[in-house]
## 1
Amino acid sequence: MGEIDRLLTSNEQYASTFSSMSGASPTRKLAVVTCMDTRIDPLRALGLHIGEAHVIRNAGGRITEDVLRSLAVSVHLLGVQAIVVMQHTGCGLIGVSEEDLQRLTGASLPFHPIGDPEAALDEDLATIRGADYFNAVDTLAGFRFDVETGIVSVQSCTER
Ligand SMILES: [Zn+2]
């Protein structure tokens, strides 16, 4: 069976017991930005359930323009008041250069590679803090997920 068939077969089972939800707003008023790394299960790692939080993922869990766009919708249209940026150990973006990534992919895009993981997370939190359209956000935290232990450590947490 091909991959697409496998997906559609699984969906038949899923849909057979599916119950729809009343609204699209995250009930915990929370958005989590994290990496697309397959070793991270953000809902289980943080004790969250479907419907409770927005989860925005990209390579590195970096705060790119598109993540800002999604977070702006989260905050202003869907009631999010807390943002967690959760980067992780062993990320594929650590220790590679923008030039390497552009050469390896053939894409002339900003890849936001990570030199110093702590500095990168600080930089991403500062980007959110620096956007005045996030003034309504009351909690902003920077987490690091350890892919060896599953333990989350807090690098930064600001509550207003
Ligand atoms: Zn990663």
Note: The pocket of zinc ion is lined by residues 35, 37, 60, 88, 91-93 (CB under 6 Å).
## 2
Amino acid sequence: MSSVFNDLIDQETVIATLKDAVAASKDSSNNSQEMTHSWLFTGPPGSGRSNAAIAFAAAILCDKGGCATCINCTSVIDGSHADIELIRTEGLSIKVDEVRELITRTSWSPSIGNYRVVVIEDADRLTESAANALLKVIEEPGARTIWLLCAPTLTDVIPTIRSRCRHLTLRTPSISAIAKLLIERDGTDPKMAEFSATAAQGHIGRAKYLATNEGARKTREKILNIPSALTDLASAFEAANTLLELAKEQAKIESETRDEVELMKLKESYGTTGSRLATGGGKAVKELQKEQELRTKRLIRDNLDQALLDIALTYMEILTSNMNLNNWVANKDLQIEIQQKANEVSPDSAIQAVSAILKAREKLNKNDSQNLTISNMFLQLLKA
Ligand SMILES: [Zn+2]
């Protein structure tokens, strides 16, 4: 049977809770149990926390509790339903002005359904003042507005907000469940599905991206080969350079077409007289370009983070191979290279390497210099 919850894989507990809440919200005889108005979905990247929130929103607004086929379900999922607000951050943070605007927009009564549902995909990116502005509405939500916040972990959201939300945790889906999803939902070839699901290590979106994008698979391979080329100081700096360039290149590919289309649409909306945009057009174009720049920065950071995770996995594999724990394999395509490196690197060194990579991730998350952090990391891997 089709259901908006079908794509949430390995999340039975969460789905059961959401279905109960939806059923209670539609039961008119049920006066005692009021719908919870603020929810917080946490789970590791790629576990599907925002998909869970959107599926829940669809189920709330669907007359049949989330059939996945009616106009309510489909328009919630594509973001066009009049009673849903999807807040996706493209930049590095959600600012207080955006939250204030959002609060004004959502203070109206729902136009079609019983509820107005707001999904904030990156609640961890709310600035402090934005979070405080949001806190006020979450403390006293309108009877017909439901807030669904998503973040990687509980500690990513300020305590005052998280204490007022009902909390749900998604777990990392298993590799076999992700492969099955790719085969059944997207028609991916089984071999490719298994390869991508394994390489993505529990990240559904990453698995799909790898399965459908040859460029991404090539970039990943280049990244994973970097550690094998570490021989001396010069090669460590060279490795840092290569990694940064790959992250930038990938971000450029991911944003270029979208940036152009957005700019074209914006210019069209202002209309052109000769070569000049109508009043206000120039300012709007500048604002859009600033936003696009922020988005590219975030994409570069995300790509770097992904690259470091992939490299850390390689060292984990070198470690398990060294200790003869060969049942764990993340990079099926690179077993020969990994075996070679395993002969050169001791288990202790592999552990040090993983810890150096994770430290570098933390630094990048705190916005430390990318060049310095990555160069430093490779120097440490050289010693490992
Ligand atoms: Zn429906």
Note: The longest helix spans residues 281-322.
## 3
Amino acid sequence: MKAVTWQGRRKITVETVPDPIIEQPTDAIIRVTSSGICGSDLHLYEVLGPYMSPGDILGHEPIGIVEEVGSEITNLQKGDRVVIPFQISCGSCFMCTQGLTTQCETTQVKEQGSGAALFGYSKLYGQVPGGQAEYLRVPHADFTHVKVPIGPSDSRYLYLSDVLPTAWQAVAYAATPEGGSLAVLGLGPIGDMACRIAIHRGFRVIGVDRVPERLARAAARGVETIDLDAVGDGLTDTIRDMTNGRGTDSVIDAVGMEAHGSPVASFAQRSAGLLPNALAEKVIDTASIDRLAALLSAIDIVRRGGTISLIGVYGGMLDPIPMRVLFDKQIQLRMGQANVKHWVDDILPLLTDSDPLGVDSFATHRLPLDAAPEAYKMFQKKSDGAVKIVLDPAARSR
Ligand SMILES: NC(=O)c1ccc[n+]([C@@H]2O[C@H](COP(=O)([O-])OP(=O)(O)OC[C@H]3O[C@@H](n4cnc5c(N)ncnc54)[C@H](O)[C@@H]3O)[C@@H](O)[C@H]2O)c1
Ligand SMILES: [Zn+2]
Ligand SMILES: [Zn+2]
């Protein structure tokens, strides 16, 4: 089969690799019909490269059709249409039964001290082959799937793999009071969708980014937008001016560790990326690598007693955090990978023909798998208006 592989920093290739086969009785093989590229993939493309090995298959946002199931799978059969959550979870351990599927005790990557195994997400998360490929082996497939109806286009359900539950969790963890205000930092796919969900829930939403197309997309759906480049250091003042001098009740950081505007950490990340892998891994494991611009803005913007919801991924081990401010302002912080299956039942009623969240037109690009190298480049550079790119393994390129 063809698969999108990581080969080095900013080096993605499409290779022919062996088809996956059933290895465990609880596995399933799916034929992938659409597969998203995520902002989290960009971290692997750049700063988390030291945890990758050449040839690793990327991707954790697939939808497809079941081709084959292992002998112990009773709730799936060939021909079923399924979305595969980005994390692999068992559904029956202590963590899973509390809805914490990203902490699944059956699949935790204990050698690395990490939570549940993730598809296509480096040694830190189990080095499981990912879903930007023609076929995918799904471990613990009896629980690690969401069955969806055949009929509507892939775009209707694809985002249940990651974008929708992630954005949903971001809004849930932000705990904005009824009728309250929420600032969303970063209007990539996750921030954009978090804005849509928050507006749907009746909150006042202020969105911040520096990419014109992303600001325009959010504004078109009723978000009050602020161009970071236009306000510069005045971001907090601008938001306070809009909120009786207090700041918003909650802030979602949908940016994470590669934020624009943290020169020192940026240098450290770049330096780690230039070291041989083993050494770089050590540097990342023991030193601060995060660019903290978005998190620091969030701490500044949120009103006293408010809540910050971190959904952007952080990876530093010794990040300098202004504890005095967090403590004095009485800020609540919630974070983590999204527990996909926990939120699916809340989201499904919104995936109807009337499409209140606009999932059917959410992707800006649908490209053949072969176009993955250019697609990654375009998504990282945010060129050609790219916000969400979906790969189509069945399409032939050029
Ligand atoms: N927690 C989870 O389960 C989960 C799941 C998916 C994605 N993520 C993370 O969410 C984050 C966003 O993902 P995405 O797919 O939307 O990616 P993205 O990279 O397209 O979006 C990030 C956006 O932030 C903007 N930005 C950069 N610096 C900023 C700053 N200082 N202030 C405001 N905006 C700034 C960028 O212009 C960009 O539009 C990533 O860190 C990704 O890893 C987390
Ligand atoms: Zn993702
Ligand atoms: Zn579990």
Note: The first helix runs from residue 39 to 45.
## 4
Amino acid sequence: MSQPACPMCEMNDVAAHADKYECMTCGHEWPLEAAAEAPDGERVVKDAYGNVLVDGDIVAMIKDLKLGGTSQVLKVGTKSKPIRLVDGDHEISCKMDGLSIALKACYVKKVQG
Ligand SMILES: [Zn+2]
């Protein structure tokens, strides 16, 4: 992560504490969240192994998953079509086995992107 600049004096001599930044030049302090890696509204979705997923990635199941409301089971190793990231607790929208499904990122691993 790159060193943040002080929002008050724009100097880069900034100390990172556990919960805040402190400017060594002017003494201004501000909370860490303001400088978090992900900007507002942009969240990071990671697969079961911590790889960052983006639109267009191909993922594969890491375990068998029964589809809610059906008797269909997605077998471990089943690969998706290019995924699309969506809001909600099922972060991945994709086609798998010819079905349009929503998946939780914790059930898949990235195989290609
Ligand atoms: Zn400053």
Note: The CA atoms of residues 80 and 96 lie 5 Å apart.
